[in-house]
Amino acid sequence: MTEIAKLGYVGVESPDHAEWRTWAPETFACMLGPDGADGAVRIKIDDADYRLSVHPGREHRLAYVGWEVLDHRDLDSLEARLEKAGAGPRRADRALCEARGVQELVTFTDLYGQPYEAFCYQSSGYRDWDPPRPHQGFVTGDQGLGHVVFVVPDAKEASEWHTDVLGFRTTDIIRLNPPLGDMWFLRSNPRHHSIAFLQMDGMLGLHHIYLECNSLDDVGYAYYDVLGGDQNPDLLMRLGRHIGDQTVSFYIHNPAGFFIEYGWDGLPIPETEARSPRYIDVTEGKRAEMWGHHFVMQPNETVRPYRR
Ligand SMILES: [Fe+2]
Prior knowledge:
The protein has helices at 20-28, 72-85, 94-100, 155-166, 216-226; strands at residues 6-14, 31-32, 41-44, 52-56, 61-68, 90-91, 102-109, 115-122, 147-152, 169-175, 182-187, 195-199, 203-213, 235-242, 248-253, 259-264, 278-281, 289-292, 304-305. The protein is α+β, with helices and mostly antiparallel strands. It has two domains: 6-122, Roll (2,3-Dihydroxybiphenyl 1,2-Dioxygenase, domain 1); 141-305, 2,3-Dihydroxybiphenyl 1,2-Dioxygenase, domain 1. The two termini are 29 Å apart. 46% of the residues are buried. The mean pLDDT is 96. The site of fe (ii) ion has 5 residues, from strand 9 and strand 13.
């Protein structure tokens, strides 16, 4: 079965897109790639030309999630499977491929109509990591950009679709306190999850994107020395370590309306491991985090009511 190899890039739209030009380099030591033709701010964290693209738009909105396959033959067979699944695959023309900076591209939608893309051969410079402050770089390579987490009306249904159609495997299922339902974590490479689903009845949208640092010091420096630590008003979760992927991280609201998780030391899952998913219950009275990750309520402008 053809499998998505990794998360390649994510595009969002926002009326405040221009804020990303200074926010991302100052907060996370990201580089800027060349702007998109529409003025999109391009965020670079490794030798790929960009990993996040923040386009001008009238509202905060997910524009596309780019899933990378290993070569054009994988793209051909994935396209056939998407056709069968009714996901509406379309070959992108030259102009769209150029806009994305890839050689071949197929657009489609997931089971809820969210805008997905599968691509191969992303443009990249060679070893041109030159961050705006000293920084030891990000974990990408065979693990891709990081991970995306979506709020969905039914996490099990979303996971089944992504497993059946895109070839993901389930790593963990975590039981949360009501009104939240189970959270499903899916992988396509050694990263613990490239995508996860947080169940909220009747809601849909982008919850967060995870960027993983090579060094704990870069997470701590961003948290304490740039953001001012626990009292920063934009934090969604303070510094802590997860019980599932065991990442040390924090979450912060960004100018495009969703959250960025910035962390270190995610648990890799060996490709060869015949691993059945763990079911982890973190409801009231049970351990929900290894430590920290205290929650602060924040708005998420990309999550909206969803009707079938
Ligand atoms: Fe995450």
